[in-house]
């Protein structure tokens, strides 16, 4: 006979997994949602760091490069160097007697009816098309100068707007403000709406009816009228948009959370918590709100682009973000007015907005599945 010795019982138990860890694994397995998350991170990093790498400032105007089409080619192009020199010479009140270009260096012979003031040559570097000039020859009477200047290499990957500003830099800087407005207003709506809706649904009865009538009254107020009333007391700008949007966008969140709370408070685990003596705030924090995370996250991800669109609407009316600040809504409004002559002005900010919108929707669906406690862990 063979004797088999057992050192101990075989255990197949796995360590307990927290809700956050389980949700993280589910989200990573959901490829569209995870790709959307990476896309949003890339857009956010581009908006934060990109303006420092484009070589342009958002407010810098290039008057000689107005409505420049997108492309990888450096500006000014060879065929536009001489016209640019002629325009600058006209501003300097000089005449271009001779012109030559070689290896990115222009050589000019400038003449005038009277002695030339060297300070007028500052028009060349101020245009950002040419570097600081070097005087090679000067006539005895000072009415003729021979100068050299290097042609600058400027790149506009997304083109320029109607004033000659780099559109890529402006889109990235605008993304900072649009994302800031979307995230800040959404966070305020979450804090107010979740708290208000959970309390209303949990208490029920006359308190719930009164709280919901307040929501109905706020729903009845026209949004634009509310903004105009705020403008009577405050100056139009970024903070006005944040206050106006956050003041009305929590209403939908409150209704969603109230509906979820009313369906959850009759469940056995909530009754067990009440029987154990937990207070209402503790039940809300430990049981009600965690079980409504799915609908809350979906609503929040849909709220961010809606807030951005609301900001676009206000900015189009002149009630939102004001110059010199800008946002995707402001750029879309500018692009719509120049659609025929410069369609890229609309395509660039609208493309960023659409990418962010689609990514937020996909991420919201993925998070809803990842945070749903009723779904089993996939094997």
Automatic annotation (TrEMBL):
PANTHER family: OLIGOPEPTIDE TRANSPORT SYSTEM PERMEASE PROTEIN APPC, OLIGOPEPTIDE TRANSPORT SYSTEM PERMEASE PROTEIN OPPC. InterPro entries: BP-dependent_transpt_permease, MetI-like, MetI-like_sf, OppC_N. It comes from Methylobacterium haplocladii. Pfam families: BPD_transp_1 (PF00528), OppC_N (PF12911). Keywords: Cell inner membrane, Cell membrane, Membrane, Peptide transport, Protein transport, Transmembrane, Transmembrane helix, Transport. GO terms for biological process: peptide transport; protein transport; transmembrane transport. It comes from the Bacteria. PROSITE patterns: ABC_TM1. It is found in: Cell inner membrane; Cell membrane. The chain crosses the membrane at residues 33-52, 177-199, 219-248, 295-321, 342-363. It is a multi-pass membrane protein. Belongs to the binding-protein-dependent transport system permease family. OppBC subfamily. GO terms for cellular component: plasma membrane. Residues 175-364 form the ABC transmembrane type-1 domain. This is Oligopeptide transport system permease protein OppC.
């Amino acid at each position: 006979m063979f004797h088999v010795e057992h050192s101990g019982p075989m255990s197949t138990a796995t360590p307990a997994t927290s809700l956050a860890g389980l949700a993280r694994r589910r989200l990573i397995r959901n490829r569209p949602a995870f790709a959307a998350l990476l896309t949003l991170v890339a857009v956010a990093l581009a908006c934060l760091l990109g303006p420092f790498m484009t070589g342009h400032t958002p407010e810098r105007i290039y008057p000689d490069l107005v409505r420049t089409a997108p492309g990888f080619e450096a500006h000014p192009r060879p065929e536009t160097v001489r016209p640019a020199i002629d325009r600058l010479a006209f501003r300097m009140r000089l005449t271009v007697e001779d012109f030559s270009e070689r290896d990115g260096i222009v050589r000019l012979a400038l003449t005038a009816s009277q002695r030339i003031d060297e300070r007028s040559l500052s028009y060349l570097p101020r245009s950002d098309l040419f570097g600081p000039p070097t005087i090679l020859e000067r006539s005895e009477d000072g009415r003729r100068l021979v100068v050299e200047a290097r042609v600058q290499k400027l790149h506009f990957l997304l083109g320029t707007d109607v004033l000659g500003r780099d559109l890529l830099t402006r889109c990235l800087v605008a993304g900072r403000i649009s994302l800031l407005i979307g995230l800040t207003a959404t966070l305020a709506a979450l804090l107010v709406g979740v708290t208000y809706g959970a309390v209303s649904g949990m208490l029920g009865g006359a308190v719930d009816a009164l709280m919901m009538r307040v929501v109905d009254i706020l729903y009845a107020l026209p949004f634009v009228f509310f903004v105009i009333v705020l403008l009577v007391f405050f100056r139009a700008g970024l903070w006005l948009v944040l206050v106006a949007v956050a003041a009305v966008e929590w209403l939908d969140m409150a209704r969603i959370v109230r509906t979820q709370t009313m369906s959850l408070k009759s469940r056995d685990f909530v009754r067990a918590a009440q029987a154990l003596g937990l207070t209402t705030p503790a039940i809300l924090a430990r049981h009600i709100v965690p079980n409504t995370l799915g609908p809350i996250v979906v609503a929040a991800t849909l709220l961010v682009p809606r807030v951005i669109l609301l900001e676009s609407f206000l900015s189009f009316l002149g009630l939102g973000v004001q110059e010199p600040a800008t946002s995707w809504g402001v750029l879309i409004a500018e692009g719509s007015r120049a659609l025929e002559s410069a369609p890229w002005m609309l395509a660039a900010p609208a493309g960023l907005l659409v990418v962010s919108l689609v990514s937020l929707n996909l991420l919201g669906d993925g998070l809803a599945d990842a945070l749903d406690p009723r779904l089993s862990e996939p094997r």
